[in-house]
Amino acid sequence: xxxxxxxxxxxxxxxxxxxxxxxxxxxxxxxxxxxxxxxxxxxxxxxxxxxxxxxxxxxxxxxxxxxxxxxxxxxxxxxxxxxxxxxxxxxxxxxxxxxxxxxxxxxxxxxxxxxxxxxxxxxxxxxxxxxxxxxxxxxxxxxxxxxxxxxxxxxxxxxxxxxxxxxxxxxxxxxxxxxxxxxxxxxxxxxxxxxxxxxxxxxxxxxxxxxxxxxxxxxxxxxxxxxxxxxxxxxxxxxxxxxxxxxxxxxxxxxxxxxxxxxxxxxxxxxxxxxxxxxxxxxxxxxxxxxxxxxxxxxxxxxxxxxxxxxxxxxxxxxxxxxxxxxxxxxxxxxxxxxxxxxxxxxxxxxxxxxxxxxxxxxxxxxxxxxxxxxxxxxxxxxxxxxxxx
Length: 390
Description:
Elements: E1 6-7, H1 8-13, H2 29-34, E2 39-43, E3 46-51, H3 55-64, E4 67-70, E5 76-80, H4 84-91, E6 104-106, E7 109-110, E8 116-118, E9 121-126, E10 129-133, H5 139-150, E11 155-157, E12 162-167, H6 171-179, E13 191-196, E14 199-204, E15 213-218, H7 224-234, E16 241-243, H8 247-252, H9 288-297, E17 301-308, E18 321-325, E19 328-339, E20 344-352, E21 361-366, E22 369-376, H10 386-389
Parallel strand pairs: 4-16
Antiparallel strand pairs: 1-2, 2-3, 4-12, 5-10, 5-11, 6-9, 7-8, 9-10, 12-15, 13-14, 14-15, 17-20, 17-22, 18-19, 18-21, 19-20, 21-22
């Protein structure tokens, strides 16, 4: 789910609507407006483009060709210093002992109760140089607070870094045109430090789309407009379009959206991310005792996939829809959308374990209507992630 969309028509036509310092514009803001962005929402205290026209066309642009997305809202927490590795390991329950310099990992940040605070991508730029590329919560404040009493020699700050996502099956060809053939050697979830016409970048083969893709981390906010135009020009012959992260594609891929599918009251086992919790290791991390107890006792609810009957949804849900079984509330729909490729309404939901088995029928309350749904396998498309990792 996303915050209410602010349209550029309202921004431009109402002189009383102004941008203040509380909510930032990205280095790509003017370029996205120039290239057709008509609506924005707010994420990590920053405006993010959420409307370039039809969401369905944005989806087809992504899965057939390529799209360029302003995701500068993925703010970075930079952790450096002699004890940076030990500190990063304290923050996450994922075992980082095999994390190499130049590698990325999807990690969880949890609190002392085992509740999820964020699910960032961790980038290791050096022996003791890390970035946490955030979803929507203030981990900079959390990390600085933990450091006060951690006893580690670390420096924690937000660097001048602003990511773009280039995603889709033709993104590799566009990257090759920009950086040369050597970019093809960049492996899934690895990074390189590069320059493009003097613009300093970190480039990783990652993204929030379940498609082949790259993220380009701009390290000089004054170069945002230039970088956007260079990429769009290089992508012209490959059908590159400006776009926004696709709710359709990320739900098809079973990808989480923080605050929707997980929050501070959600633990990793409820969303099937046991592999990111190293309970059997001797490493120490915040929340370990709580997660051990939860694991031993078992969870009472769990995330499932749903197929939902009835007419096609006209957009993603903006509130949680209650789920019922025999008139009793047994969970909620967290993310729902119509997939034009699958020709189905699909959803991620959190339900009581007792009603989580495949084939289980559940009723969904949407306003005053009741729709039927059935529990199915997730992800809904490309479950082995062959598109992203091949």
